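Exam revision sheet. Question 4 asks you to relate a sequence to its structure. Input first:
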Amino acid sequence: MVLGLSLSSLSACRPPTESSAGLVVSAAAARLTDRPGAVRFAVIGDSGRGGPEQYETAAQMVTERKRFPFDFVIMLGDNIYGDGTPRDYRDKFERPYRALLDAGVKFYAARGNHDVGEQWRYPLFNTGGHRYFTFRKRGGALGALIGTDVQFFAVDSVSPDARQLAWLERELRASDAGWKIAFFHHPIYTSGRYAWHSVLARRRIEPVLRYQGVDVVFSGHEHIYERIVPQSGVAYFVSGGAGDVRRGDFQPTTISAAGYDGDLHFMLVEVAGDTMRFEAVSRTGQLVDAGAITQVSTPNAQPPTLDHSQRSMPTVFR
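Answer key, structure tokens:
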């Protein structure tokens, strides 16, 4: 199923412009370009299957990088299915993404429920040896002039606890980055098979994301693509189809802005100044969804301090 933009045979699911406090999201058919001063990255979720479809999707990422030279990739969990053996890491990560690794592209990995062992200690996942971590990217000298400043927050949604939520709130509160982007495995908004599960996690983590100024959230777990209508000033994407797809799992609801479950996919994202542009691209190079998120000024308000002693996220997801 495909619902989204009027791109070739795609049909509209939502109006071309959606707004929420602090954000305006607009759909667009224009492809991303190498914009000066931008932070450019790719997004893959649930990638580590090791099958031919994963390799074909990785090859398409290499092709797309020729026109849109992204510098790094964020991974949304389930990065290595299987037992986590050295062979698994070789066949399900190092081999399919060899061309990108050799080109200097860095991968930053959040943990998924199928990731066995202490995966965060694997050097090529650039976690700094931590289950949850943060890193910052700027668009070089020109990026400084146009205000391109992005901080990423990788959250472990598999083994969450009050300490992690307190860490996330503290780091978000301390950040003065122009964009705050969180990524983790289990979605807190989805129209896929895990919609009910998402409600449980949402009650616990959403207040931190909302009150501490997160702009965009990327999650996997669902083997589909979905762009969610902005919720309380936050834009959400589900992108769990870089290694497998569950055809028929996307069942559009009132929160769906666009969706796709016809093939594997990945995302390309560019942040320049106050605008984030994005694409979802299929295994064969089809443009599945595209658009822009623009920040708008909102009155400053002092966010509340949350009590995380009873807010540990559940570990019931499978």
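Marking note for examiners. The chain has one domain: 2-295.
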